[in-house]
Amino acid sequence: MDRTPLFKRKTAISYKTEEKTVLRGYNVSDLAEEGYTFYDALFILFQDRIPAENEMDLLRFETGELLEDSMSPSAASAIAVIGGRPNLPAAVAAGVMTFGSAHGPGAAHGYMMHKYIERARVEGKSLEEMGKVLVDEYMDAGLAVMGMGQPQHLDGDPRAEPTHIKHEQLCSGVYLELQRSIEKHFNERRAREGKSYVAVNMIGAGNTALAEMGFSPNAAWCIGCVCRGFSCAAHAVYTMKKGRAWAASKREPMVQMLDLSMIKYIGPADRPVPTMAERQEYARKQKEEGEYKKWVI
């Protein structure tokens, strides 16, 4: 049988043979054996470059913070879908598909930042000045300023400011400068209008950091979806193993899952995070004591 392809598909991402899989020219096995990690591979995948250590550290920090946000539209969707007991990927996909203008990672904030940074260059304005221009243009048009406010954290998402601080320490640049200006002028205008303070959210903090690291808006969207996909999977698996099918039977309490007051946490008690110097001994004791086994999903 003639197996000569009728046409060839072009890709600049990867190829594989019987002996190896190659990502942007790098043998993935060689990358792993040299100690490069998932975070390094994301830079190679989306940007065709190996990151500097400070960039890799910032991506590692941010993906850790993005991973879990407790009960949210994505988690609730994954939980609801798994109630019908489809294959697990259907529930994970349902969770990821909730990400949009009001929830989770998205590309729109990044495109907004790109647009106004370019305008600052063309119009000869500072990023401090352009932050005010952005805020006034959006608010005058009755549009929400992307990256501000979180409905469950009225005093500010506790992950957002630490992300800004780590960004400032490791990789500060034009995107953080513009974002800080947006936050300043946004709340100055709200104060003049007699409105309450609104803090930056994880879109404003997280997407800004990803842009500073060189990720395009769509690449940032993908990275956020992958991170939260793990969380959606965990919520779905937990519900599949611990909850009832349908989740709407008369034996199942009908609750509004997005209201934080309705969540009853029954997991491990709050505990301090061990330092990296304590990590090996801490991990050894956890395995030895075996308490973790009742929480494994």
Estimate what percentage of residues fall within beta strands: under 5%
Determine and state the CATH class of the largest domain: Mainly Alpha
Mean pLDDT: 89
- Tally of individual helices: 12
Write down the domain tally: 2
* Backbone CA Rg: 22 Å
> What name goes with the CATH superfamily of the largest domain?
Cytochrome P450-Terp, domain 2
Class from helix and strand fractions:
mainly alpha
The second-level CATH architecture of the largest domain is Orthogonal Bundle
Unreliable spans: none
Shape: globular
Distance between the termini: 48 Å
Number of DSSP strands? 3
CATH topology of the largest domain: Cytochrome p450-Terp, domain 2
Please outline the major beta sheet.
3 strands, antiparallel
Assembly status: single chain
Q: Strand arrangement, largest sheet?
A: 1-2-3
Helix content: 40-55%
How do the SSEs run, as a string of H and E? EEEHHHHHHHHHHHH
Explain how this protein is built:
The chain has 297 residues and is mostly helical. The longest helix has 26 residues, at 217-242. Strand 2 (21-23) and strand 3 form a beta hairpin. It folds into two domains: 13-50, no CATH class; 65-247, Cytochrome P450-Terp, domain 2 (Cytochrome p450-Terp, domain 2, Orthogonal Bundle). The mean pLDDT is 89. The protein has a three-stranded antiparallel β-sheet with strand order 1-2-3. The chain is built from twelve helices and three strands.
